[in-house]
Every structure is written in structure tokens, then in C-alpha cells.
Amino acid sequence: MRGMQMQSNDAMSPFFSIIVPCCDVEPYVRECLKSVLDQGFGDWECLAVVEQSRDATERAVREIAGTDGRFKVFTEPRSGSPATPRNTGLDHACGEYVVFLDGDDFLAEGSLGRLAARIRERPQADLFPCAFHDWREGRGSVRIVDNWPASAPPEMSGTDSLVQMFGHVHTPVSGAQFTVYRRAFLEKAGLRFVPGLVYEDLEFLPRAFCPARRVAPLHEPFYMYRTRADSIMGASRAAGPKMEHYARVLRSLFAFHASIAKKPGFDAELSRLFGRSWIALLRTVWFSPSSVASATRARRLETLREVFAGGFGDFRALLSAASLSRRVAGWCVMAFVRFPPLRGIAETFLVRIYSNLAWRRRGR
Asked: Residue 1 — very low, low, confident or very high, per pLDDT cuts 50/70/90?
């Protein structure tokens, strides 16, 4: 039934479906939606998914949407992350290409037209990674961030694109908003976000890129990414919540890697690069000096057990392709979790010795 509905919608589909999760963003959402209205390129639909808010977000959304039929407004209970409203938007989207736009961010002036022109040059590609503006309150755009090197091939497979990205940036900025997606690809691959997950983009992006046949980096800075302390991401940065959220993300990433690494022709270089990034994240979140100072050992142990709730097999699969220094860090993490007599030694090594060595290797 859903397939029949998609066929019918595709005959008159807009070029872009812009999916906007909105929760507690009344001070920003007017600017967000107005940036869509003022593009000059009008072949779009905008799906604003408003979660139950503590402010007048829904009223602000409906005020901007007005009677413009290109806007579709949905209301949902509060979920705690953009994952569920993005999934709702995907379930109702009719456009040929999908853009995710958070309700407290906005689009650069005239960017949709530029994107459409670039996309039409490579209509067979599944994903179009772009650059974005790091935008700060009171300062404006402070820098343009691009996860892909300028020397990257104009089109490549999904796994090759990940090798390019993780090879170019030690810790890529994981924002699902900075890529344009061909909707037919998302539907065929069955790609959705994990409901309720914070840091959902970090978990989603490898699953989205690996099955892609063609990825075409555009290097187009179309997205204005607002940094603010009272966002969901800002609120999750305290040590306790941060560990809980990252535990779910890393458990999923380790399992995902273990599943794709078994496939014929898998590029082991991607395993090495995943290991470099994810093991560094594991060490930083649980064993940086600031994490140890702000969270008890019992708390860190509890959340690490969540990471390895299914055992250590998936993590060992990642370690097997990692560099020696990453393997040492991984062995220490496992010792901390598994062997109480070694807990203090492993912690001391990761916090004091390994951290210093890591900083020196990065030239700081």
C-alpha cells in the first residue's frame, strides 16, 4: 500500500522535501522557516514536525506556514531528540530529495537553487554531502566546515566516501543535516533514525553512507548551523547524560561495523579509520581527566557495561584492524570493565599516560 502511495506522489513530487523537527525553538523557528520561504527557489515542500514544547513553538510555526500549501505541520509528543520527528517527516515526504533542517538553524540565502543546480549535474547519485556555516549568536558565521577534502573524487561509492571523510577529518562533524539525500535511496535502504537517541547523527551516518552506490560531495555551504547552550545537544553534554547517550550510540556502531566487515570486498582501511575515531571517542567520553573528575567510577563502569551489553565480540572486531595504540586503549577499556583488580591500573593508564601521549601525537 505504501509503495502504491509513493508511486502516485512521485508523479507530482517537489524537488526538495525539507524536514524540520521543532521543539522548544520559538525564538528561532520563524527565522528558520522564513529562510525557506525567502530562497527564491520554490520547488519544495516543508514538513514541520512540532513536538510538545514548553513555549509557543507550534504557534510560531503555524504563523509562518500560514496558508502556504507547501507547508505541512504535524504535532507529536515530546521524544527528547530529532530522531522521531525526522522519521515522521520521512514517512510523509513526497520530494525527490530530502533536506533535514533543525528548527533552530536556517538556510543560507539562495542555497536551495544552487543545490538543485549541482544535484541535477549528477542525478544518479544517492547522497550529496555539503559544507556548512558554523554560526554563533552575536558573531555570525565564524567558519565554514567541510568533512570532505577538496581533492575528493566528484563521485564515489559510499564506503570510499567514508574513507575519504574519516581520512580527511580525525573526528568528522556528524550532522545528518549537512547531506542531501535522494529519497528513493532512503526508502529502498529502509533508513530511519533510532527513536529517542541523542547523538543520533553519529549513529545514522555510517548506516546511510555504506549502502550508497554513488556519493557526490558538493562542498556547498548551504546550512547555517547555530551553536547554543540550551539545545538538546548542549543539555546532554554533562558527564552523566553524555555517557548514557554515547553508550547506546557506540554499541550500535560497533555492531554495525561487525556486520559490514564480514562482507566480501570490504575495505579494511575503513575499519582502521572507524577504530581511530570511535576508540578515541570511547576513551575521551569515559577516561578524559574532565570525565573522571565529574563522574564517579561506578557511574562510568555502569554506562560502559551498556556499551558492551552484548559482549565484547563486536568491539574486538573493530580492534583487530586498529593501530597498535588504539588496540592498547581498547584492551585497557575492556580490562577496566571485566577485571576489578585491574580497574585502577587501567584507569590510571588511560587518564594520565595515554591521554598525554595522544595529545603529543596530535602536536598539542
From this structure: very low
Closest to 197 in 3D by CA, of 186, 211, 207, 187: 207
182 and 316 together in one domain: no
* Whole-number Å distance between alpha carbons of 95 and 184: 9
What residues have CB less than 8 Å from 149, skipping those under 6 apart?
A: 164, 168
Secondary element (H or E) of residue 129: strand 127-129
Residues 112 and 198 in one domain: yes
Is the C-alpha dihedral spanning 305, 308, 312, 316 positive or negative? negative
208 closest CA partner among 271, 273, 253, 170? 253
**Structural domain boundaries, residue 210:** 2-234
Listed range (162-171, 172-181, 279-288, 350-359) with the worst mean pLDDT: 350-359
- State residue 360's pLDDT score: 52
> Where does a domain end: 234, 261, 293?
234
Query: Other C-beta atoms within 10 Å of 356: how many?
Result: 10
What's 179's DSSP letter?
E
Same domain, 86 and 177: yes
Q: What DSSP line would sit under 239-282, residue for residue?
A: HHHHHHHHHHHHHHHHHHHHHHHTSTT--HHHHHHHHHHHHHHH
Do 114 and 211 fall within a single domain? yes
Average pLDDT in the 72-98 region?
97
By the 10 Å C-beta count (0-12 exposed, 13-18 middle, 19+ buried), 100 is classed as buried
Mean pLDDT in residue range 139-158:
90
Look at residue 80 and tell me whether its pLDDT is greater than 60: yes
**Tell me: the pLDDT tens digits for 336-361?**
999 999 999 999 999 988 866 665 55
- How many structural domains are present in the chain? 2
Quick one: 11 and 158 in the same domain?
yes
3-state DSSP assignment of residue 304: helix
Q: pLDDT tier at 364 (50, 70, 90 boundaries)? A: very low
* DSSP calls for 38-65: TTS---EEEEEEEEP-SSSHHHHHHHHH
In this prediction, residues 212-226 reach a mean pLDDT of 96
Residues 16 and 139 in one domain: yes
CATH code for the domain in which residue 208 is found: 3.90.550.10
